[in-house]
Amino acid sequence: QEKSCHLSAALLGEDSEISQEQLYELLKYAALGKCHNAAQPSWCRIYHQSHLAGVVVVVLHEMSQLHFYRFYLQFKHLRRVFRHRFTLTPSANFPVSLYGEGTNLKPQNTPQGLTSTSSECIIKNPDLQCDPIIQRYGEKKQGLTSYTLTLEEQKKNDYPIEGSPGCKGYISTECDQQRTDSSPLFGLDCEMCLTAKGNEVTRVSLVDARGQCLLNELVKPESTVVNYRTRFSGITKKMLLPVKTRLSDIQTRLKKMLPHDAVLVGHSLNSDLQALEMIHPSVIDTSLLFARSEGRRFKLKFLAKAVLGKEIQCEQKLGHDPTEDARAALELAQFFIEQGPTKVAELNLEMLLTAEKLAEVSQNKAVLQPQRCGFQEQLNEPPPLSKPCFLDCLQVTGQKPLLLGRQGLDSSGLCQSNLSTSNKQILQRALEDVPLSKFSIIQFSLGPEYLASHLHAGLHEKVRSKLTDMLTIYAGPFEENFCMKSVKKEFGRCGPIQSLTVVTETFQPYVCIQYEVLEAAQLAVESLNGAEVAGSCIKVQRPVTAAMLDCNVLIKELELDVENEGVIYVAGLKKSLTETDLQEEFSQLKDLETLFLPKDLQSGKHRNCCFLKFQKTQSAVDALEALNGWTMKGSELRSRNALAPGHLWRWIWQMNHSNGKQGKHIFYEKMEQLSDSEQDLRKKVKKLDHHIKKLYRSLQNNTLCIVLFPGVNSTHGSQSGLGLMGIKDDEGRSAC
């Protein structure tokens, strides 16, 4: 049964701002897996990456987080499908930060105005029939028994064989049971020192199929040590002084540990078995498995980096770590068996090795080259090597990157800028070409008439104004000499207060309260409207403005937002409580996954509220019932469903604390200019959301899809970007 891919990201807290470099790491790993030193990014994790059907990145040119929340209701598909969102740090050169420097792709001929790079411009993979791996194993995937060395291959490669003249006195592992494709794999590696007898074992490591270390033992040589080979073995005289274990002890332990159908895996495993003076009938040798022509062999260090994306045998360490080497060899064999010869051959390991050597030579030349001066010499100097781009790596592995857009994808001419093409044409081309490509970048744009800086400034002010109104409530009327302290205490139990002022223009006093989070304002409206506060029965409401007429609709949609599933807001906490205290207090709540305790971004102090994320939606519903009237450390808690996704906390805070440099009359002028085209802009956004929906529905299951609002970073100002991501599942939604 095909494994499904999963994506997890710890993005609930206010630190969910992702840099361009972190985004690049995610895309590189998603596209290449463990190849080319592509490691899992630190901020999220892709499970079963090898089962990804493809990666599709949708870039909404010059749009920011501001656009998403200004047109939140219009982005119906985006907010209902993608489970993970993150704030994206804006970049001055977004395309380069997106897919790295040094891209060597050239645009192909496309319909007028449409820019594209696709399969026709790729470096074609060499004929795989000539690859030594294909010549040896064929193209089809096979079980592990197809990759174990035959008796003849063992003899040819100097493996200890039962009855051979040089193996007198050797111990058999007695693993003589018939091997099957489900037989267990064990990684083995030894470190040796040179003694008067020859190579003798000084350290032995054995790992099981899950990579867990079963044995990691120092061994006392029988003969006098001539050379400890510390640089490679990591063994010193001091290390071996207290050691009592002898080779015979290790032989006995290995015989007991290995099941009768065990298959040993190692890199040049013959040397290890010779040093152990042991005979084992079934082995996989990774130095031979990853076949090369003319009897040459890849080093384990290179294979680990090129295939697994792991750095081993680092120069900073003293000697090799046999457990690390045993695990690397085991994982290489598992990779080969799982992926099959064709996938391994498509890695083009020979080409990668050549590129690595050239890079080393270039670095050495750069280090050794004396500094020179003179204009002519500078002219003759070769250009510096650019950072490798993962799109280039995709080409090397035979995958087909696709780039489509109406606006230049970068400033280097990768895709020529032409504004005559519509988003509809781009969508049609994407629906045809994306299924043929493993990695696609599709760029849509609202058009230059909607991206002008003055419109963007007006948009910012409209969002800020509406957000302020949603965070604000009016309460009253109160008695003439009401107790302000009582009012602040009662309303403070709903969440952190930004400001509290008395309204004096009314016949009786009212108070205007602005909260720091949307949930607090909504909780105040729901729980205190009609309540008795400071001796008065009061009414609680939000400001009545044209922009607030759809507030209830917006609140309802925010509650249904896919990112708020299973998340609840809890207020009324004492500020003295730490995160550890809260974890302990809430530990009895079923399926609690994450607790986020917001803090003031200036002072760093915790607020009197928190967010709880549950593994199941029903568990969140049950928790809301349980928390109703819950008292913690003498304080009664209030709770409701979350409204603002976690990444929005920092953004709301910044909006609340931002001070415009220009006068209000200028903002009003800009807002009027925006209003003239507001209705048309909403239609454009709605259509854009529909385009993305159509593209998303056409994707195969297990496709990673990322939608990026890149943000703006220019002389006119900076606006944070927004990323939405998920892996499409059978139901057409993004999987967790």
TrEMBL record:
Pfam families: RNase_T, RRM_1. InterPro entries: Nucleotide-bd_a/b_plait_sf, RBD_domain_sf, REX1-like_exo, REXO1/3/4-like, Ribonucl_H, RNaseH-like_sf, RNaseH_sf, RRM_dom. One of its GO terms (molecular function) is RNA binding. The keyword Lipid metabolism does not apply. GO terms for cellular component: nucleus. Keywords: Exonuclease, Hydrolase, Nuclease, RNA-binding. It comes from the Eukaryota. Residues 471-545, 566-644 form the RRM domain. PANTHER family: RNA EXONUCLEASE 5, RNA EXONUCLEASE REXO1 / RECO3 FAMILY MEMBER-RELATED. This is REXO5 exonuclease. It comes from Prunella himalayana. The gene is Rexo5.
